[in-house]
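To close the section, here is one more complete example, presented without commentary so you can practise reading it yourself. The ligand is S-adenosylmethionine.
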Amino acid sequence: MSWVEAFFDDPTYDIEYAGLLGDKERTAKEAAFIIRELALSGKDRVLDLACGHGRHALEVAKAVTHVVGYDRTDHFLAHARKQAEELGVANVEFVRGDMRELDYEDEFDAAYNYFTAWGYYCDAENQDVLARVVRALRPGGRFLLEMINRDALLGDFRPRSWQELEDGTVVLVEQRFDFETGRSLTKRIYLRGSDRRTVETDVRLPAPEESVRMFRQAGFARIRLISAPEGGALTAKSWRIAVIGAKE
Ligand SMILES: C[S@@+](CC[C@H](N)C(=O)[O-])C[C@H]1O[C@@H](n2cnc3c(N)ncnc32)[C@H](O)[C@@H]1O
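Output:
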């Protein structure tokens, strides 16, 4: 089983990230950032790549014509569809798919990938995902990729941390950064009663200038780096980064 399956398919994910998933103010701020930086308007069709529980898609849908939320994880999509129904949001569609097989062509005015939801695969596959996003966009289409800012992470590196979840599970996290590959590696141990589960995550975190190179190689132009979600100039202290590019 890959770490992506082990991490996202386990029901503990929803408990571990309950604070984030339930933080409406944070999600509203992030959605406003997406809308502003992608200059979204009422006529746009938008792709939320790796939409998870649909927290941004449901907000962004208020500002555009149509949103496709795309993700591999069934239980997240089920949650997203239920939320859309409960909130009466009709212009959003949640589609199951693997970003490595994203197969739209000239379909969207804009796309985004939010909360370090890219970089889970080898360099060639990660690069190919960017090329697939370019293909999915119409000419002039914009893409925003948001993730942890590697420079800030390394400047305040915490090799070990732990937390106790609402259901009593204790999560121990050991983190290291592999400088040769530019990958952030964590070993996460979940302890609940006598149960013990270990998941080792492995995420590519490009340095800012590498992101620019990858975007350029994929075919993006007008590339810029900003601090997320407040916007403005990126600094080594910006905890999160957004890389934005456009298809010419
Ligand atoms: C850290 S979560 C972010 C979710 C969402 N963007 C948010 O901000 O709440 C990463 C997401 O990537 C999805 N994911 C991982 N690998 C994927 C793949 N190959 N194709 C599509 N989605 C994938 C996971 O299911 C998960 O929803």
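Once you have examined the tokens, check your reading against these statements. The pocket of S-adenosylmethionine is lined by residues 4, 8, 50-53, 55, 71-73, 76, 98-100, 114-117, 120 (CB under 6 Å). The longest strand covers residues 137-148.
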